[in-house]
Amino acid sequence: MKRREDFVTKKLALLIDEDLCWGCDACELACKQENHLSEGSRWIQVRTKGVQRVNGKLKLVYSPARCLQCSHPPCQEVCPVDAITQRPDGIVLIDYNGCIGCKKCIEACPFGVMQFNQEKGVAEKCHLCYHRIDQGLKPACVDVCIGRCIYFGEMTELVNRYGERRWLSGRNGNEKRTSL
To answer: Is the domain defined by 4-179 classed in CATH 3.30.70.890?
Structure first.
């Protein structure tokens, strides 16, 4: 018999338009407050790429980095105790009670966004504020984004709404820089 989860095909995602980000760090602060993170934990990190030429003009470029909730998470594949799971909506979660702190998931993350919490002895990362999503709310970073550059929703709908362009976390030429 099929379970309810077997019918869920929507993958939830954050889309960030890096051209609109001005590096205010409001998303980082909201994440820390919402998830009661320690001072050193940064589940979303606004990285400064420095001065770059954008559309022929020099501009300070910021790149908010966070877990991309991979379709086939490498962190989950290497976890020796199955402490990392993926919900039917694509959100990747860590069971902190099951995590043994081996750091294999951190090494496997191709985006360098997983972290180790020294105080708790566990790996941690963004989980899209699933507790808010389950209540019909948006992730905290989306609600507080002053530049309105963070969008949340079902991935296909986000791509349809914002166009069929190449989603980048880097930049080449005059392409629009956006990352899923």
So the answer is: no
Write the secondary structure of the chain as one string of H (helix), E (strand) and C (coil): CCCHHHHCCCCEEEEEECCCCCCCCHHHHHHHHHHCCCCCCCCEEEEEEEEEEECCEEEEEEEEEECCCCCCCHHHHHCCCCCEEECCCCCEEECCCCCCCCCHHHHHCCCCCCEEECCCCEEECCCCCHHHHCCCCCCHHHHHCCCCCEEEEEHHHHHHHHCCCCCCCCCCCCCCCEEC
For the chain, what are the domain ranges?
A: 4-179
* pLDDT tens-place string over residues 22-44: 999 999 999 999 999 998 899 99
Which tens digit of pLDDT belongs to each residue from 102-161?
999 999 999 999 999 999 999 999 999 999 999 999 999 999 999 999 999 998 898 888
pTM: 0.83
